UniProtKB/TrEMBL annotation:
PANTHER family from the UniProt entry: PLASMINOGEN RECEPTOR (KT)
InterPro entries referenced in this protein's UniProt entry, alphabetically: Plg-R(KT)
GO cellular component: plasma membrane
GO biological process: positive regulation of plasminogen activation
Species name: Pogonophryne albipinna
Name of a matching Pfam family: DUF2368
Annotated protein name in UniProt: Plasminogen receptor (KT)
Length: 122
C-alpha cells in the first residue's frame, strides 16, 4: 500500500509539473501576441484610423506559429525541460494540501463514509 501511495504521489507530481510548465509556455506566446497586437492596433489606429485591418492577421499568424511549433518544433522538449526544472527547483509547488494521504487518513474517511451510508439506509 505504501509503495502504491509513493508511486501515485510521484505520478501526480510529474503531471502537475507538466501542467505548470504548459501554462508557463502558453504565457510566453500570449504575452508576445498581446504586445504585438497592441503595437499593431496603435500604429493602425494612428495611420489609417482603422485598427481592424491588422486584427485578423496577427492572431492567425501566432496561432499558426504555435501549431507549427507544437507539431514540428521543440515545444514538447521545452515543456518537459521546464517540468523537470519545476520538479527540482520549485518542488514546493507540487505539495498536496494536508500532505500525502496516509493509511490512517484513508481509513478514517472510509469509516466516516460507511457510517454515513448505514445511517442513511435506516
Amino acid at each position: 500500500m505504501e509503495r502504491q501511495m509513493v508511486m501515485q504521489d510521484q505520478m501526480r507530481e510529474r503531471q502537475m509539473a507538466m501542467q505548470v510548465a504548459w501554462s508557463r509556455e502558453f504565457l510566453k506566446y500570449y504575452g508576445t501576441f498581446f504586445a504585438l497586437t497592441t503595437v499593431g492596433l496603435t500604429v493602425g489606429a494612428i495611420k489609417r484610423r482603422n485598427p481592424f485591418l491588422l486584427a485578423p492577421i496577427v492572431p492567425l499568424g501566432f496561432t499558426m506559429a504555435y501549431n507549427v511549433d507544437s507539431a514540428y518544433g521543440t515545444l514538447i522538449y521545452r515543456v518537459r525541460g521546464e517540468a523537470e526544472s519545476i520538479m527540482t527547483s520549485d518542488h514546493d509547488r507540487l505539495d498536496l494540501p494536508h500532505g500525502t494521504p496516509t493509511f490512517e487518513s484513508i481509513e478514517k474517511a472510509r469509516r466516516a463514509r460507511s457510517s454515513l451510508a448505514s445511517f442513511l439506509e435506516k
